[in-house]
Design brief:
The structure holds 2 protein chains of 2 kinds. By secondary structure, chain A is mainly alpha-helical. Helix content of chain A is about 75%, strand content about 0%. In chain A, helix 1 packs across helix 11 and helix 3 runs antiparallel to helix 8. The longest helix of chain A is centred in the N-terminal third of the chain and has 34 residues. Chain A is globular. Chain A starts with a helix and ends with a helix. Chain B is an all-alpha fold. Chain B contains 14 helices and 2 strands; from the N terminus they run ααββαααααααααααα. In chain B, strands 1-2 form a two-stranded antiparallel ribbon. In chain B, helix 6 crosses helix 8, helix 6 runs parallel beside helix 12 and helix 8 crosses helix 12. Chain B is globular. The chains are: A mainly alpha, B mainly alpha.
Chain lengths: ~270, ~300
């Protein structure tokens, strides 16, 4: 290696380490302030207390937002699978006329501004007079999560071995049995990763929920947003830390299941 | 049922055309049936609702709040002739472009280390780069609110004051800079991942050859790595630009009233002013902006593939 390329790679690694610190910084600061023994959130943290955790975990608003978000994310993921799994299977394994166009349509909510998707649904629901907030939120969340399911399941199916399916069919297995016994075990990790990712997309969503939620049906990100702009004690940092912890668990799971890059579809 | 029909569609490509035609339409039918729920759902709740929203942008809202005919372009005229609104449009475009450009500049080194590093380094880096994507944007933006706070107890101000670099807290929160920093953090992975994919596809022998022939490393990057990774850059730039331009939470928390984006304007028009046609107009402008950059990027990639 000559002198100049040493300088080059030193620069490369300096920028990389700086960017990794930049990425971690807001998460680390939030975590450090969640145990701060002060009345108002301020840096640097002082002392150590778990009192904010006790307060947050007993807060009825936090508990109801958490259970509502978990219900919403689980139901939205189930819905996204009901729609997305057969669709991805059809796109990869069947000679569908106009398949490419249908695929673009199914993935189009990914490039459409999510905020506008939510607004358009609010308008549609009010024109139709659909007043059930949980159902409306569920429809909206299925809409934003289903493209992720389509994308990861499609990628998994493309990697699955078609000759195994052909063998099963030749040996007389029905199409459904072939899918259940041959295809599904092969794509299971990808499907699980897609499901987990879709769950988190719904669980984290703000820009769709902000149009459709109300006081009785209050998803977690809405609660944090309100608290972040109106509460100045460390409890907001505590709720945030709990969610960061959940995200870290999910990331490690995704990494174990299929590798993170594939789970992201990139 | 014959064996050939039953093993369709996988073995049928080898069959003579004549026996293929009837089974093909069966499989096509089955495929379309499997696609029906997803496509129907999307048409009903995505396509129809978006078209209805855009229809509002050319309709008139009566005094009693009902939106109806006549057709009008007055909302667009109002948008483009009011300096307050064009100002929000241009600052949205500016913040999105600066964020995407910074992400590209800082994303290249990270992506290059991710592609070339050993397996353990790559794995840890991938976890650090991707983990924040699974944390809600509200949580991440709250973290930046703590970091950038304009008082002595804001993290950045505290560090700069402790180091004696400044003597009075500086104002970072509620500026465009804060929104750009927050957006860069939120969407950085969307640049690094496509860049890393593109860089991984480059044959390392090309870079080795350039180096052997005496090119310094910046030149190898400029003449070999950069041109060959342009598709990844185009995808990353488009993603970061579109996502930043469509933000709501980051400008609302970090930008305050002084660095608003189109998303905040839409929310105000609907939730505070109840002006549905004008809110729909701003939404249309936002969607048109995002579609334009996506189409430009697709056009660029296709032209490159043909060449």
């Amino acid at each position: 290696m000559n002198g100049r390329s040493v300088v080059g790679s030193a620069m490369l690694y300096t920028v990389t380490v700086a960017m990794l610190l930049f990425i971690a910084a807001p998460l680390l600061v939030t975590m450090s302030l969640s145990v701060s023994d002060t009345q108002f959130v301020s840096f640097p943290p002082k002392g150590f207390t778990l009192a904010w955790y006790g307060k947050v975990l007993h807060d009825p608003d936090v508990r109801s937002a958490l259970s509502f978000s978990l219900w919403l994310a689980a139901s939205a993921t189930a819905g996204a699978f009901l729609l997305g799994l057969p669709a991805a299977f059809a796109l990869v394994r069947f000679p569908v006329p106009g398949g490419a166009a249908i695929r673009s349509l199914l993935l189009s909510p990914l490039i459409f501004p999510v905020l506008v998707t939510g607004l358009a649904l609010l308008q549609l629901f009010s024109i139709l007079g659909w007043g059930s907030v949980p159902v409306n939120l569920l429809i909206a969340h299925i809409l934003v999560t289903s493209p992720y399911v389509v994308r990861t399941v499609t990628a998994s199916l493309l990697l699955a071995d078609v000759t195994l399916e052909e063998a099963a069919r030749t040996l007389g297995a029905s199409r459904w049995r072939t899918f259940r016994r041959v295809t599904l075990p092969q794509i299971a990790p990808g499907v699980a990763a897609g499901g987990l990712f879709a769950f988190m997309v719904s669980f984290d969503n703000y820009p769709v929920s902000m149009w459709l939620a109300d006081a009785q049906n209050d998803p977690m990100p809405m609660l944090i947003y309100r608290k972040a702009t109106s509460v100045f004690d460390p409890s907001v940092a505590t709720i945030s830390t709990l969610l960061i912890g959940l995200a870290i668990v999910v990331v490690l799971l995704l990494d174990r299941l299929v590798g993170l890059r594939r789970a992201m579809g990139m | 049922m014959t064996v050939t029909a039953r093993i369709f569609p996988f073995a049928s490509l080898a069959l003579p055309i004549r026996s293929r035609v009837p089974s093909l339409s069966r499989a096509q039918l089955a495929g379309l049936l499997l696609l029906l729920p997803a496509t129907g759902f999307l048409l009903a709740f995505f396509v129809v609702s978006a078209l209805t929203l855009f229809a509002y942008s050319v309709l008139t809202q009566r005094a009693d709040g009902v939106v109806a005919l006549p057709l009008t372009l007055s909302h667009f005229q109002h948008f483009f002739s009011t300096s307050l609104y064009t100002h929000v449009l241009f600052s949205t475009l500016r913040m999105a472009a600066v964020t995407a450009a910074l992400a590209a500049l800082l994303g290249y080194p990270v992506a290059m280390v991710m592609v070339r590093g050993n397996a353990m380094v790559v794995r840890i880096m991938t976890i650090i780069v991707i983990a924040p994507l699974i944390v809600s944007v509200v949580v991440r933006t709250y973290g930046w609110q703590l970091l950038l706070a304009n008082t002595r107890t804001g993290v950045v101000n505290w560090i700069l004051l402790s180091l004696g670099i400044i003597h009075q807290p500086i104002r970072i929160l509620y500026t465009e800079t804060a929104v750009i920093i927050g957006s860069l953090h939120v969407f950085f992975p969307m640049m690094v991942l496509p860049l890393a994919s593109a860089l991984a596809k480059i044959n390392p022998q090309l870079e080795d050859a350039a180096r052997t022939l005496g090119a310094p490393s910046w030149r190898v990057f400029w003449r070999v790595s950069l041109p060959l990774s342009l598709p990844g850059l185009a995808v990353g730039f488009t993603l970061v630009f579109s996502l930043t331009a469509s933000s709501y939470v980051t400008p609302a928390i970090l930008g305050g009233t002084s660095a608003q984006m189109l998303g905040n304007l839409i929310e105000q028009q609907i939730a505070a002013v109840y002006d549905w046609p004008f809110g729909a107009t701003v939404a249309f402008v936002l969607v048109a902006t995002v579609l334009a950059i996506n189409m430009a990027s697709t056009w660029f990639l296709e032209r490159r593939n043909r060449a």
